[in-house]
Write a structure and sequence with these properties.
The protein is of the alpha/beta class. The protein is built from eight helices and seven strands; from the N terminus they run E-H-E-H-E-H-E-H-E-H-E-H-H-E-H. The protein is globular, with a radius of gyration of 16 Å.
Length: about 220
């Protein structure tokens, strides 16, 4: 079954080349969806062998939707970030349950394999507590047993992805995708995957400024 890796990138010139080359070893096709980078991200992604496409400049969720459309309806789509925190060598592990007919979506769980992005800072504490709380509430609502609902490293059946009718344009895309999939009765599985510290560049993940987006997206899809 065809595997398409969709790498979501913005200003990741320090990391994108390595991520593209590693993903290409495990995917039939590599798409780099660029969020209008101001550095050499697009150039380096293309030189590394990726098909480079621009999103609409609206945020990470927009990149997901553009990637789903560009990937088409064949095989498996695996999403991963361009910052080097996700291990492209785990792409086969995420795709396998879908290829084998055992799942419709597979999430890489940091809580089952560890993370280097955990420290004693207050912002790290807030991110982890908030993510775990959202995951717990999703499980209570849908009777699921997910451990890492906000991890963007995930695989989905390409022929089903467009049926989710995703609307989020920002980081709230990740739990919107899961909640809509659970509403449709999709089989969601998890596999352990270690999260690494980014090799260079700055994180784009908001800790406080967009908390309302995560909460709003959760409430909209809760009922």
């Amino acid at each position: 079954m065809k595997v398409t890796a969709v790498i979501l990138a913005k200003d990741e010139e320090a990391n994108i080349e390595r991520v593209v080359k590693s993903a290409a070893a495990h995917a039939n096709r590599v798409l780099a969806v660029d969020g209008h980078s101001t550095d050499s991200t697009r150039q380096k992604a293309a030189e590394a062998g990726a098909e480079v496409i621009l999103d609409n400049g609206l945020g990470k969720g927009d990149g997901y939707k553009v990637g789903i459309k560009a990937a088409g309806a064949e095989g498996v789509i695996v999403f991963l970030d361009a910052d080097g925190s996700h291990d492209p060598n785990d792409i086969p592990k995420l795709a396998a349950p879908i290829i084998n007919g055992a799942a419709d979506m597979v999430i890489a769980s940091r809580w089952k394999a560890g993370s280097d992005d955990v420290d004693a800072s207050f912002s790290s504490f807030v991110r982890n507590v908030g993510g775990n709380l959202l995951t717990m509430l999703i499980n209570l609502r849908f009777g699921s047993q997910i451990t890492d609902a906000l991890n963007g490293f995930r695989a989905v059946r390409a022929d089903l992805a467009s049926q989710l009718n995703l609307v989020a344009n920002d980081f709230d895309i990740e739990h919107e995708m899961i909640m809509k999939a659970l509403k449709k009765g999709w089989r969601i599985a998890e596999v352990p995957s270690h999260e690494y510290a980014r090799a260079g560049g700055k994180s784009k993940l908001p800790t406080y400024s967009k908390f309302y987006l995560f909460l709003w997206r959760f409430l909209v899809n809760f009922f």
